């Protein structure tokens, strides 16, 4: 329920709106009461009412307060209805597009919540546009938001975009991805039988100090066994040799000298399944 003060404000807004309609050729004067409605709505966590006031101020080109815009976007992302999430992204992109705007911690928080909110309601494109706008302003998006974005891209079969974003984030060293960040992307690339690309992506992570374990490698090995064909045996053999060497290098396997002579590099059409079952069961 609205307070009497807020009702009075709304009545004044309506009276001024009606009086301005007498002179249709004159642009309506900027009403401080609408801004007050916006501020009060944000304070009361009333996202729908705040958005309505924002729309009114936007029509009058009278809202130039970055902090207020950030508060509004954060409110809508955290407390708004699911269908309002894209509005939060729109508001933040409007803010970030201003050349003179300088982002701060509040901007980062608003961006993270808004990206997450958009992904929750499957508004991937809105999340991507905001992610790109934040990147251009050097705003760091935290690792959980990055993980969610990559997983959503993979689920939408936009694997190449996920690979590009993952490589860029890993190389920048601002956010430190883990093997869990890589896993859904690696599996998606593996499902496309792009074994060389899987190796390249793992190597990219290793070069940038991402540690991989059997938690990452085992699903890839399982997929390789499912995908075995006579045509792919050589490519899969090279892939499995790489996995074996990576596990050994990282200390997960300890070979004796005798075992080294029977390295997993010896693959042929008939022994492929048996060799891999023996190595990884």
Q: Structural class per helix/strand content?
A: mainly alpha
Q: Which term fits the overall shape? A: elongated
Biggest sheet descriptor: none
DSSP helix fraction: 55-70%
Strand content: under 5%
Radius of gyration computed on alpha carbons = 27 Å
| Discrete helix count | 15
Q: Would you tell me the overall average pLDDT?
A: 81
Separation, N- and C-terminal Cα atoms? 64 Å
Low confidence ranges: 1-30, 260-267
The total beta strand count reads 0
**Element pattern in H and E:** HHHHHHHHHHHHHHH
Biased composition (Acidic residues): 255-281
Keywords: Repeat
Region (Disordered): 251-281
Structure write-up:
There is one protein chain. The protein is mainly alpha-helical. The chain has a domain at 44-50 and 58-141. Helix content is 69%, strand content 0%. It contains 15 helices and no strands. α4 runs antiparallel to α5, α6 runs antiparallel to α7 (124-136) and α10 (179-191) runs antiparallel to α11 (195-207). The longest helix has 17 residues, at 4-20. It is elongated, with a radius of gyration of 27 Å.
